[in-house]
Every structure is written in C-alpha cells, then in structure tokens.
C-alpha cells in the first residue's frame, strides 16, 4: 500500500523499499489486465473459478519470486515478512524472508492446481466462492508454515 508506506518513509527518511511500493501496484494492474485480456480472448469467462485460481496463483508465484530474489535486507516495518518472531534478530529476518517466499510460491502452485476440478467437472454458481475462499486461504497457510519454520529453527 503506497499510502501506508509513504508517511513512515518520509518521517523515518527510509526510502530504500519505496520503489517497490510505488511500482508494484502499476505492474500488478498491468499484469492483471494482460492476463484478463488473454483469458477473455479464450472465451473462458463461462467458468470464472478458473480465472480466480489462475490469476491469484500467478500473482502469488510472481510475488514470491520477487521477494525471494530481492528480499528486504534490513528489519523494517515497511515490506517483507513482518511478524514479531521474524523481527527478533537479523538472522530471524533473513530466514523468514526466504521461507515465506518459498511458501507463497507454493501457495501459487496450489492455487493453480485448484483449477483442475473446475476444468474437469461442471460447476455451479457456488464454485466462484469456493475458488475465492481457497485462493484467500492459501497465503494464510504460508504464514502458518513460515511461523512453524521460524519456531523450529530458532526455538
């Protein structure tokens, strides 16, 4: 959220992560539009759960890859995996960034796999809500996995 990040960056004079907060929404919008146009051209709108699963899955995978490749170097309150446990030390922080990225990528693949039943079977109106609920739950599972990994490694 650029608005939430700008104030603390201004007050704390900490501008390093701001490029991400200023560019990510526009990149995400462009990616969503391109992917949506692709799926519309395939006339796949008669099965919207597939759109939910594919778009969310791809966003999770891309986001995880970005954070894995460009993790926040220092403990901060602006971006990265930010929990009380992950901020205990720099070692906790570095480990949490890598682990959470791996788990969010895994969530993306699970989300993509969620499409399979919607492709194979006739689905009703409730299928969209099922897809939305599952696509929302996967990132929460990655938080639980990251916290367990932190606890296992650091106690």
Percent helix among the residues?
A: over 70%
How far is it from the N-terminal to the C-terminal residue, by CA?
32 Å
In terms of DSSP E residues, the strand content is under 5%
Instruction: Give the strand tally.
Output: 0
Structural shape: globular
The helix/strand series, from N terminus to C terminus, equals: HHHHHH
Structural class: mainly alpha
* Main sheet characteristics: none
Helix count equals 6
Low-confidence stretches: none
- The chain-level mean pLDDT equals 83
Instruction: Please state the CA-atom Rg, rounded to the nearest Å.
Output: 18 Å
Task: Give a brief outline of the structure.
The protein is an all-alpha fold and 155 residues long.
Describe it for me?
By secondary structure, the protein is an all-alpha fold. The protein is globular and about 50 Å long. The protein starts with a helix and ends with a helix. The chain has helices at about 1-10, 20-40, 50-70, 90-115, 115-120, 125-155. The chain contains six helices and no strands. Helix content is about 75%, strand content about 0%. Helix 3 (about 50-70) packs antiparallel against helix 4 and helix 3 (about 50-70) runs parallel beside helix 6.
């Amino acid at each position: 959220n650029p608005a939430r990040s700008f104030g603390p960056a201004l007050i704390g004079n900490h501008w390093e992560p701001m490029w991400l907060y200023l560019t990510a929404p526009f990149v995400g919008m462009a990616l969503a539009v391109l992917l949506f146009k692709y799926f519309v051209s395939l006339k796949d709108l008669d099965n919207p759960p597939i759109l939910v699963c594919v778009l969310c899955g791809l966003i999770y995978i891309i986001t995880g890859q970005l954070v894995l490749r460009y993790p926040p170097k220092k403990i901060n309150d602006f971006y990265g995996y930010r929990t009380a446990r992950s901020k205990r030390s720099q070692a906790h922080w570095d480990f949490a960034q890598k682990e959470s990225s791996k788990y969010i990528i895994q969530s993306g693949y699970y989300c993509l796999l969620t499409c399979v039943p919607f492709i194979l079977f006739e689905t009703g109106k409730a299928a969209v809500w099922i897809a939305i609920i599952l696509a929302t739950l996967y990132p929460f599972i990655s938080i639980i996995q990251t916290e367990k990994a932190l606890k296992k490694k650091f106690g």
